[in-house]
C-alpha cells in the first residue's frame, strides 16, 4: 500500500459535500494474487444530513461493497466529519484498528499481578513473609500479631490490604473476645481477613479451633479492591499456616458480618451429619406368583 499526501489530501476532500452522504472508492497501489488493484472504501455520513439519507446509506452500504466486489476492498473507514477523510485521518483509523482492545479493570489487575511476579523473579529474592505470586509483604505489626495469635495471647486478628503500598496491614486485634460482638468488628465498606481462636464445646467434647474468615461487603467497595483481596486470600492462609503454625480448622466467607454468630461458626466447624436412610424396597408379591397380567381374548357369541 502506498499513499501520498499529494494524492490523498488533494483529491478526497474535494469530493465530499458537507451535508450529503457519499461512498468513495480509492485505488491503492497494492494488487491481489490475480493482479487486480485493491481499494480503500470510505463511507461519509455527516451529522447534518437528512435522516432519510442517513438511513438510505446505512441500508445500502453492504450492497454497494458486494456489487463493487468485496474481495477487492483492502480496507474501509467511515466518518461523519470531513476532516476524517485526510491522509492523517486514515492513519488515525489504522492505529485504532490495529491497537489491542482496551483492558477491563479485571484484566488490568491481572496484568499488574503478572508484571509484579515477573519483577520478583527477575530480582531473584523473596522475603519469607511475602505472599506467593503477588509479593505483598506483611507489615511488622501484622507479623507480631500473628505470632501472638499462635501463642494465644491474642484471640482475634484482623488483617487488611494497603493497596497503594502493596502490603498486608494489621487492622484490629482482641486479647479476649465475645463471639456475640464479632459482627461489630466487621467493616461494611471494605473486605478484611479475620483469624479467630475459637474454643468451644460440641456434643460433650471440648475443641480449640482457629477459624479464618474472609468478609467482602459486595458492591460497597471497588472491583479492584475486591479482586486483590480475593487474589491474596489463599496466600494469606498459606503464610498463616506454614510460617506461623496456625492450624486453620475452617475457612469461612461471607458478605454480611451479621452472619458471624456462634451458632453459625459451630455449624461451619461441625456440620450436621445427615442420618442414613436406607432406600425403601418394594415387597415381593406373596407366593412368588408372577404379577404380570394376561388379558384373555373374548370369544364371540354363537350365532343363532
Strand fraction band? 15-25%
The helicity comes to 25-40%
Strand order of the largest sheet: 5-4-6-7-8
Q: What's the β-strand tally?
A: 8
- Shape descriptor reads elongated
Question: pLDDT under 50 segments (min length 5)?
Answer: 125-133
Query: In angstroms, what is the radius of gyration?
Result: 37 Å
SSE sequence, one letter per element: HEEHEHHHEEEEHEH
Broad structural category:
alpha/beta
Mean pLDDT: 81
- What is the multimeric organization of the chains shown? single chain
Distance between the termini: 105 Å
Largest sheet: 5 strands, mixed
Count of helical stretches: 7
Description:
With 304 residues, the chain is α/β, with parallel strands linked by helices. It is 33% helix and 23% strand. It has 7 helices and 8 strands, in the order αββαβαααββββαβα. The strands form 2 sheets. The protein has a 5-stranded mixed sheet with strand order 5-4-6-7-8. It has a 3-stranded mixed sheet with strand order 1-2-3. The longest helix is centred in the last third of the chain and has 20 residues, at 223-242. It is elongated, with a radius of gyration of 37 Å. The termini are far apart. Mean pLDDT is 81; it is low at 125-133.
Amino acid at each position: 500500500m502506498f499513499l501520498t499526501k499529494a494524492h490523498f489530501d488533494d483529491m478526497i476532500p474535494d469530493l465530499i459535500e458537507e451535508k450529503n452522504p457519499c461512498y468513495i472508492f480509492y485505488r491503492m497501489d497494492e494488487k491481489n494474487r490475480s493482479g487486480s488493484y485493491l481499494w480503500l472504501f470510505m463511507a461519509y455520513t455527516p451529522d447534518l444530513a437528512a435522516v432519510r439519507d442517513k438511513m438510505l446509506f446505512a441500508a445500502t452500504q453492504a450492497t454497494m461493497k458486494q456489487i463493487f466486489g468485496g474481495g477487492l476492498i483492502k480496507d474501509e473507514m467511515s466518518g461523519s466529519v470531513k476532516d476524517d477523510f485526510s491522509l492523517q485521518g486514515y492513519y488515525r483509523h489504522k492505529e485504532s484498528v490495529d491497537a489491542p482492545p482496551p483492558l477491563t479493570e479485571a484484566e488490568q489487575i491481572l496484568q499488574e499481578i503478572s508484571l509484579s511476579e515477573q519483577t520478583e523473579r527477575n530480582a531473584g529474592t523473596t522475603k519469607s513473609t511475602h505472599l506467593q505470586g503477588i509479593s505483598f509483604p506483611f507489615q511488622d505489626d501484622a507479623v507480631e500479631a500473628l505470632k501472638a495469635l499462635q501463642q494465644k495471647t491474642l484471640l482475634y486478628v484482623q488483617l487488611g490490604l494497603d493497596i497503594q503500598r502493596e502490603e498486608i496491614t494489621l487492622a484490629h486485634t482482641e486479647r479476649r473476645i465475645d463471639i456475640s460482638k464479632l459482627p461489630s468488628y466487621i467493616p461494611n465498606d471494605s473486605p478484611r481477613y479475620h483469624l479467630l481462636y475459637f474454643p468451644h464445646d460440641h456434643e460433650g467434647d471440648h475443641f480449640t479451633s482457629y477459624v479464618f474468615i474472609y468478609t467482602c461487603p459486595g458492591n460497597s467497595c471497588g472491583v479492584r479492591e475486591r479482586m486483590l483481596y480475593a487474589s491474596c486470600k489463599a496466600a494469606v492462609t498459606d503464610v498463616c499456616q506454614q510460617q506461623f503454625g496456625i492450624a486453620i480448622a475452617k475457612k469461612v466467607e461471607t458478605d454480611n458480618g451479621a452472619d458471624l454468630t456462634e451458632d453459625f461458626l459451630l455449624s461451619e466447624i461441625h456440620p450436621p451429619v445427615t442420618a442414613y436412610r436406607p432406600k425403601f424396597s418394594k415387597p415381593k408379591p406373596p407366593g412368588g406368583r408372577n404379577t404380570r397380567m394376561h388379558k384373555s381374548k373374548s370369544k364371540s357369541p354363537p350365532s343363532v
